[in-house]
Design brief:
Blueprint: E1 2-5, H1 12-18, E2 23-40, E3 46-64, H2 70-76, E4 83-91, E5 96-104, H3 117-129, H4 134-141, H5 151-163, H6 170-174
Antiparallel strand pairs: 1-3, 2-3, 4-5
């Protein structure tokens, strides 16, 4: 099965914690969509979402995942509660492929939200890891962030980023 990751799941080590079978298949883009950090998470911060938008493009990564891991990924993404799995046609470098992506339930969309710094760093790390276009990385970098009030969540995500080779300074996550 092909899964189009466009948010924090682009970082392979994060995705493999959820879906051990995940293998990057190709970088891809989803035309006529834009990336937003406006899906309300259980922790109150903004998480990534894709939204229809003429003349815009979302870059991401297509991963091959085992059907046996789909339930675990659905649970991690809160399929049926905060996100819904949706079929998308993405354009790879040589071909278009059918994949699924998670799209926020409209009830959980709030344009006033901002991502926590660690979540934003995961998205950036995944985009860099897969060599997504500089313009896409710059657009992600431009998103405003907020500090996470949970010291433990900040610490655990800082460790994940360090293990993946994308260290963040202690001051960036403990501000």
């Amino acid at each position: 099965m092909y899964y189009f990751g466009y948010g924090s799941n682009m970082l392979l080590s994060r995705l493999r914690r959820r879906v051990p079978s995940a293998e990057p298949a190709m970088n891809a883009k989803l035309p006529e969509h834009t990336l937003r950090f406006h899906k309300r998470s259980r922790d109150g911060s903004g998480k990534c979402n894709i939204v229809s938008a003429p003349s815009e493009t979302v870059h991401g990564v297509v991963f091959e995942v085992s059907p046996a891991d789909l339930d675990a990924l659905d649970e991690a993404e809160q399929q049926g509660r905060r996100y819904r799995r949706q079929s998308v046609t993405v354009q790879g470098t040589t071909e278009a492929v059918e994949a699924f992506a998670y799209v926020a339930d409209p009830f959980y969309v709030d344009d006033a939200l901002h991502p926590y710094e660690w979540y934003h760093a995961l998205v950036l790390a995944g985009a860099r890891q897969h060599g997504l276009p500089d313009s896409h990385i710059a657009a992600i970098k431009a998103v405003s962030t907020i500090p996470d009030p949970s010291r433990e969540r900040r610490r655990s995500h800082r460790i994940l980023l360090e293990e993946a080779g994308y260290p963040l300074s202690k001051s960036q996550l403990d501000a």
